[in-house]
Protein 1
Amino acid sequence: MPAEGGLAEADYDLINGLCGVAAHLTMAAQYSAGAATLLERVMQRLTDWTCQPSPGGLWTPAHRVLGKDHGLHPELRSGYLNLGVAHGIAGPLSLACLVQLTGRADLDLRPLITSLAECLCASIVLSNEGLDVPYHVLPSGVHRPERPTRTAWCYGNPGAARALQLAARACARPDWEETAVAILHAALGRDTGSRGIPSPNFCHGKAGLIHLLHRFTRDASRSDPALIEHLNRELDELLDMHDPSAPYGFREVDLQGRAQDNPGFLEGAAGVAAVLAAFGSDEPMMWERAVVTA
């Protein structure tokens, strides 16, 4: 991959790319000097990319946009910067914060964290649904679709809010946590139909939102009764989605509203079970590092 960046999102993102590899290295680094060295190299490369202006760095230039996106998302044809946790800069931001907070690498990652956190904050828009972290930053002059981002882990305000909260802790920047609280409240104030999370799953469903609220409220610098109330309500609604007749207890709901039986982690019942199990642990569970929430 080029030192100046200009990448397809799958080159660096959490799900398919270098960020996901590094998330696992953070666990191995405490046991292996080789893993620790490799983690430092990955974090240095992410730092180098972040310093590059568009269309370099973590921007996806026009020639790296996937063919399917040309048809499904024509606004991306000229290139974009992905803002999500799963496929965009909120993933490397969360990762860098966790590495900085745990001391897993002999690097000062605060410049990287600051650059990504400020970019994320600067990208927040005021939509007809309130403050919103869009799916993408687009080149000047490209029309952005008028739709709120889903209220999820993979994209949208909740995942971005957790990333900014971690950044606030890593860099002693309480203003970032204030921004995180504001965008989280904005998302939770939307009606159910505007949230775009009909499924119980972790990636883009209720379980992921609940997990983020769980971690956010536990780590908050001050108690927020409204967020705790939202957490309890969302948890009750998730438990109501349990189906004893389903093979795995919870049924995935696809974008067409069709129920499916999926045992998987990101888009199935295993992720729901993991989130529920985390309520019984005072410390973050190992799987949480894979999704860079703790």
Note: The first strand starts at residue 60 and ends at 61.
Protein 2
Amino acid sequence: MAIDLSKKNIERLLTEKQFAVWDYLQKADRATPREISEKTKVAYPTVRQAIDKLMRLKKIERLGQGRSTSYRKLRQS
């Protein structure tokens, strides 16, 4: 069964805090989890969980490794 991940449907799949992370990443070119936490006022562990979920949904990609790891929205084809 395929899941439609349009904007309206992704809102249904994410909690309010997860959606705040997604919304921030749509506006930012790239961002670190710490930056997302500070800008959205969402707790760091919650940001990490949201990032994991967005990665599983193939909505964002990881850039770099270690402390310099950042994330950005995948460009839709």
Note: The helical segments are 7-13, 16-27, 33-40, 44-56.
Protein 3
Amino acid sequence: MRMHKGVTLFECLIYLALFSCIATASVAIIARLWQSRMRAAAIEQSHLTLYSAFDALAREMQSAPSLRTQWKCIMPTTLIWPIKDSKRNDRCWTMHNKALFRIEGSYATASGQWKKKHGSTIAPITELHFDCAGAERITHVTVLLSDGITTLQETIALHNRIIHAQ
């Protein structure tokens, strides 16, 4: 029969080992939860950035001409069209330095050069592709944007100026 109060060294080591295991498991669970939350936040930010960029592009394309001959440049990664009610200004959306880039200025179709321009970076992207449908009139433009995390493919209708999601 034991007469003294307290715990033995062996009991103390058992409790210490038990609490160490519980603390280690708790830290591991918290670390996994934190990593998954950061991953989800990165995906959410990616969606927000790409959809905001697409909305800005779609809003500007609503003023683009429908006739293919009125456009200054139609390429898979570059679109240039004259700004409505402006004789000297053109608008361009392209990929430059791994970013979606918007340019406004005076574009010379014959030389393929900008006479004067100013541009702004809209969103960081890794892939851009434009696909214009329609022979004489461009009926819609399918836009593919990717930033390495999220890929967004949407269609902008030009015949009646309605945006369709795919």
Note: Confidence is low (pLDDT under 50) at residues 162-166.
